[in-house]
Amino acid sequence: MNHDDTGVTPPPAAGAPATERTPDPAPRGGVAEAIFAEVEQMTAGGAMSKSDAFEDISRRTGRRAGTVAANYYRIARKRGVALQPRGRRGTARAQATSGTGTTADALAAAEKALADLAAAVRAQEDELTRLREQAEQFAKLREIIARNA
């Protein structure tokens, strides 16, 4: 192979057939397989949770934890590993239907929020009444001051 005086192999000339191909650092799917094996080893016997394993691998490899998890679960599904179904996240409705919260809990929270709102409206009404009374008193004072001025 020809090298220039820097010791670096120059790229092939345009249109010339490539004579060598740089091998991939890992065979296709090899990174995911390695992640799967490492997570399985780290979590064996309950030593660590999968989430913690994903975070640990993420810190060491520079990959995002979500990417690590996606690689792990892709291989787990491919191998037919029994996985727990994912729960729904987000809204109260989703929580009420996913088992993380009951409908009764959601109704109780809604009732409490409504009671808090009603209390706030009553407090505002009381304050408005008090401010109107003070405004009337100030108006009377202004009349008295205007007559004596």
In words, what does this structure look like?
The protein is mostly helical and 149 residues long. It has 2 domains: 24-84, no CATH class; 102-149. Helices cover 63% and strands 0% of the residues. It is built from 5 helices and no strands. α1 packs across α2, α1 (30-43) crosses α3 and α2 packs across α3. It is elongated. 7% of the residues are buried.
Concise summary:
63% of the residues lie in helices and 0% in strands. With 149 residues, it is mainly α.
Can you give keywords for this protein?
149 residues; mainly alpha; 2 domains; 5 helices; 0% strand; elongated
Helix tally equals: 5
Classify the helix fraction into a percent range: 55-70%
Query: How many DSSP E strands?
Result: 0
- Counting helices, strands and paired strands, the structural category is mainly alpha
**Mind summarizing the main beta sheet?**
none
Beta fraction of the residues? under 5%
Mean of pLDDT: 80
Report, as a whole number of angstroms, the end-to-end distance: 109 Å
Net shape: elongated
- How many structural domains does the protein architecture include? 2
Helix-strand pattern, N to C?
HHHHH
Low-pLDDT windows of residues = 19-24
The gyration radius over C-alpha positions equals 35 Å
Show the helix and strand layout.
Layout: H1 30-43, H2 50-61, H3 65-79, H4 92-98, H5 103-148
Helix pairs in contact: 1-2, 1-3, 2-3
